[in-house]
């Protein structure tokens, strides 16, 4: 089947380390759009947090989509409609707070544009020192995605959040996650637990993923999963890469992502996406599908 849709993760995939799209990659995407391809931005970010990508690409003027918060929210540019999947409930928030205390780890409860930081006083003081010494912001840049965002410190006791919880982020050192990831996944077995980067873990409702969002987008767009080529680099991209027609791992991707991909592109710093799209547009689709088979 011919590829009719391109789906892109952002951080570590479409974006370079300066959080920008290389002009050469942008040109390849726009060439694909001119040939009638649908574009999906599939990200852990929310809509405001992706506007700096979709606006320059011109996605608002076509039949294109956003799969936001790891697939929990779909936005259809043509119809200007949202579609919301399952969220975490207040009782889930309480369970996850207990795990934060058990592992002495910071949990950030993402509720729309409000981000609630659940962290011990000792660890909060360490964050303050890191901000002074290293310039690491206390909010990890979460407030940069647009106006009206709040980063709120919670008391370090059981707090029942009344807002829907889109996801929970856990932040710690790479060494900590290397040692404790399996234990965290066991403690959080009721949820999908995804390592997004060496120091960044995300907790989602079971079954909510970029892949589940793409299936809904297929119904809206009139194409199939086999007609999608998807690009990613982290654990929240694995299901998407496994289930589409051509799953592409970036050269800088985690090894488990590369293992399930059909094709390994160049890195996000070396126009991996642009080069791969150029192969697709040059009629090399079967080579991309079969490169690892």
Question: What's the gist of this structure?
Answer:
The chain is of the alpha/beta class and 293 residues long. It has helices at 10-14, 23-34, 51-57, 90-103, 121-134, 174-187, 210-221, 238-243, 255-260, 272-281, 285-290; strands at 5-8, 38-42, 65-68, 73-76, 81-84, 106-111, 114-118, 150-153, 167-171, 191-197, 200-205, 228-232, 246-249, 263-264. The strands form two sheets. The chain has an eight-stranded mixed sheet with strand order 5-4-3-2-1-12-13-14. A six-stranded mixed sheet has the order 8-7-6-9-11-10, covered by helices on one side.
Walk me through this protein's architecture:
This protein is of the alpha/beta class. The protein has helices at residues 10-14, 23-34, 51-57, 90-103, 121-134, 174-187, 210-221, 238-243, 255-260, 272-281, 285-290, and strands at residues 5-8, 38-42, 65-68, 73-76, 81-84, 106-111, 114-118, 150-153, 167-171, 191-197, 200-205, 228-232, 246-249, 263-264. The protein has an 8-stranded mixed sheet with strand order 5-4-3-2-1-12-13-14. Helix 2 runs parallel beside helix 10. The model has no long low-confidence stretch (mean pLDDT 94).
Key terms:
293 residues, single chain, alpha/beta, six-stranded mixed beta sheet
Helix content: 25-40%
Instruction: State Rg.
Output: 19 Å
What distance separates the N and C termini?
17 Å
Low-confidence region ranges = none
Structural class by sheet pairing and helices? alpha/beta
Total helical elements: 11
The overall pLDDT, averaged over residues, is: 94
Main beta sheet: 8 strands, mixed
- Using the alpha-carbon principal axes, give the shape: globular
SSE order, one letter for each helix or strand: EHHEHEEEHEEHEEHEEHEHEHEHH
Number of strands: 14
Strand content: 15-25%
With strands numbered from the N-terminus, the spatial order across the biggest sheet is 5-4-3-2-1-12-13-14
């Amino acid at each position: 089947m011919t590829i009719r849709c391109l789906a892109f993760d952002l951080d570590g995939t479409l974006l370079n380390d300066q959080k920008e799209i290389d002009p050469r990659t942008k040109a390849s995407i726009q060439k694909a759009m001119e040939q009638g391809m649908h574009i999906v931005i599939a990200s852990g970010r929310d809509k405001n947090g992706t506007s700096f990508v979709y606006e320059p690409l011109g996605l608002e003027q076509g039949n294109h989509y956003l799969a936001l918060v790891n697939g929990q929210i779909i936005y259809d540019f043509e119809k200007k409609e949202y579609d919301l999947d399952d969220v975490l409930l207040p009782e889930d928030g309480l369970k996850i707070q207990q795990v934060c205390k058990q592992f002495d780890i910071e949990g950030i409860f993402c509720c729309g544009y409000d981000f609630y930081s659940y962290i011990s006083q000792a660890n909060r003081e360490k964050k303050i020192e890191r901000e002074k010494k290293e310039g690491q912001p206390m909010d990890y840049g979460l407030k940069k995605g647009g106006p009206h965002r709040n980063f709120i410190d919670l008391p370090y006791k059981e707090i029942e959040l009344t807002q829907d919880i889109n996801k929970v982020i856990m932040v710690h050192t790479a060494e900590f996650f290397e040692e404790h990831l399996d234990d965290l996944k066991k403690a959080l077995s009721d949820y999908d637990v995804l390592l997004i980067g060496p120091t960044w873990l995300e907790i989602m409702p079971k079954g909510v993923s970029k892949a589940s969002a793409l299936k809904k987008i297929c119904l809206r767009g009139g194409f199939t999963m086999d007609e999608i080529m998807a690009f990613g680099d982290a654990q929240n991209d694995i299901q998407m890469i496994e289930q589409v027609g051509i799953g592409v791992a970036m050269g800088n991707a985690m090894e488990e992502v590369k293992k399930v991909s059909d094709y390994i592109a160049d890195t996000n710093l070396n126009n991996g996406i642009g080069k791969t799209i150029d192969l697709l547009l040059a009629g090399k689709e079967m080579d991309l599908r079969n490169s690892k088979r």
